[in-house]
Each structure stands twice: as C-alpha cells, then as structure tokens.
Amino acid sequence: MKITKILCLWVLTLFAVTFADEELYYDNGIAHDTFIMGQNGIYVVTKFSPSQYPAKLMKIKYYMPKVNETTAFKLSILPADLDGKPWDGNDLVEPFVISGGHAGWNEYDLGALDLNVDDDFFFVLSQNPNNFFAIGVDDQEPISLHSYDTDC
Question: What burial class does residue 1 get, using C-beta atoms within 10 Å of its C-beta: 0-12 exposed, 13-18 middle, 19+ buried?
Fold first, then answer.
C-alpha cells in the first residue's frame, strides 16, 4: 500500500483496538459526525500506542452509522517510522477487505493474524474500489494528535 500524502491532522474516532491485556480507544462516548469515504486515494489513519510491548492484536472495533450489503473498506496496518509517522510501504500484514456489518459499533477479529506489535502502529482505512460508506468520527478530546486523513 502506498500513501501518497497525509495532509491534515484530524481529530476523529475510527477504531478501538483490543490487545491481550488492554483495549485502546479514542472515543468519549458521544457520536459527533461521520466521514464519507467516496473517492479512491482517500485514506484515514489512526495511530495506536500500547502501554507495553510486545502487544498481540486481538480485535478492532469501528463505528458505522449505516451500512448496506455492499459496504466494504480496505484495512492496512503500518508500523511507525523513527519520527512516529506511518512507515509507508512496510505493511505489518497484507492489506485486507472488511465488508458488511451493521449500523453502530462493529467488531472484527484480528486474532487469526497472530500479529504482535513492538512499537506504535497505525490502522489505515481506505476505500474499497467503487464503494461509498461513512465511518463515525469524533472531534472531542482525548483523540487529538492520533488521526489523520488525506481529504482536506
């Protein structure tokens, strides 16, 4: 996967991630808005920093205000580079498509990936070709400086 640019710092809630011993999330419990994914080349990136390493990824949670039978998005997992930014081109696993779901919080099991991270990492959400969908976002603390997009 190649992220050609990350232009904006956004404060948005996309994911919660569960490790063997903890759950990290950037959500204050109040839904604020949605972000429409409708163009190829648009990426939304969220950084996670587990409290201890190595940390085994177990599941990801994401909020979708509505879905239909064609709802799908591509998920990539990237390590952080030495500057703490996404290390583009060094995917921790091959990008994969998540499809379906229901309106509200959805959960996807990552345990089969058997992926242990030993540093900060990023979830990168991108549009699956020819598929429009909305992802829940939040613009309240404590989520600042963790999420970015390329649509600004």
Answer: middle
